[in-house]
């Protein structure tokens, strides 16, 4: 009986089993990292949130992080007036629209956009940037803006501890997106 070929065959089989196990562990590790990553996002001081509403036949989805006031003065201090703001925390806030629409009176194509703003004491510039996957505003490129418009801000009697959004629809199919934090509310039309 020749034992040599059996040893090679057994060695090859063991090597293949080792590769399969390594691939399985690698896939499990990636899955575990994704789960851990999602869990870590929920544990952030500014946790992630999503709001999705349909206005007429337009679906608007906003993904954002929710920083808290935590006793601080937000606008004009933590978030300076006249300077570009990521409009939330962590990753850039994104707005996705299901069809071409009008935003703040101007045309916007269907798609996903990063939302930036330039806060002012009474007037804000709202920016829809065509590069949705950004961290904060560090790599913001004005040449990639799809839309910019100005809106008036309002003071709220209520304190909004967490940064957030609200989308309302009226009977005519027009919608209003409101963003609120601290005692400031900024709204614009979407239809």
Key phrases:
globular, about 190 residues, alpha+beta, 7-stranded antiparallel beta sheet, about 45% strand, 2 domains, single chain
Outline the structure in words:
- With 191 residues, the chain is of the alpha+beta class.
- The protein has 2 domains: 1-43; 45-190, no CATH class.
- Helices cover 20% and strands 43% of the residues.
- It is built from 1 helix and 9 strands.
- Strands 1-2-3-6-7-8-9 form a 7-stranded antiparallel β-sheet, with no helix packed on it. The protein has a two-stranded antiparallel ribbon with strand order 4-5.
- The longest helix has 39 residues, at 4-42.
Topology:
Layout: H1 4-42, E1 48-55, E2 58-65, E3 93-97, E4 101-103, E5 106-108, E6 111-118, E7 123-129, E8 145-169, E9 175-190
Antiparallel strand pairs: 1-2, 2-3, 3-6, 4-5, 6-7, 7-8, 8-9
**Whole-number total of structural domains:** 2
- Principal-axes geometry comes out as globular
Mean pLDDT: 86
Strand content range: 35-45%
Helix fraction, binned, reads 10-25%
The helix-strand sequence is: HEEEEEEEEE
Concise summary:
This protein is of the alpha+beta class and 191 residues long.
């Amino acid at each position: 009986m020749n034992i040599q070929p059996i040893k090679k065959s057994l060695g090859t089989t063991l090597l293949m089993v080792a590769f399969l196990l390594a691939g399985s562990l690698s896939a499990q590790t990636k899955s575990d990292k994704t789960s851990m990553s999602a869990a870590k996002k929920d544990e952030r001081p500014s946790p992630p949130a999503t709001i999705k509403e349909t206005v007429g036949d337009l679906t608007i989805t906003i993904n954002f992080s929710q920083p808290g006031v935590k006793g601080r003065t937000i606008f004009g201090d933590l978030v300076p007036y006249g300077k570009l703001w990521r409009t939330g925390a962590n990753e850039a806030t994104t707005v996705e629209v299901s069809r071409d629409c009008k935003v703040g009176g101007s045309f916007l194509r269907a798609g996903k956009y990063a939302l930036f703003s330039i806060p002012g004491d009474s007037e804000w510039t709202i920016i829809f940037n065509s590069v949705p996957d950004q961290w904060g505003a560090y790599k913001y490129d004005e040449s990639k803006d799809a839309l910019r418009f100005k809106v008036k801000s309002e003071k709220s009697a209520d304190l909004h501890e967490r940064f957030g959004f609200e989308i309302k629809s009226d009977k005519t199919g027009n919608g209003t997106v409101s963003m609120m934090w601290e005692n400031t509310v900024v709204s614009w039309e979407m239809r």
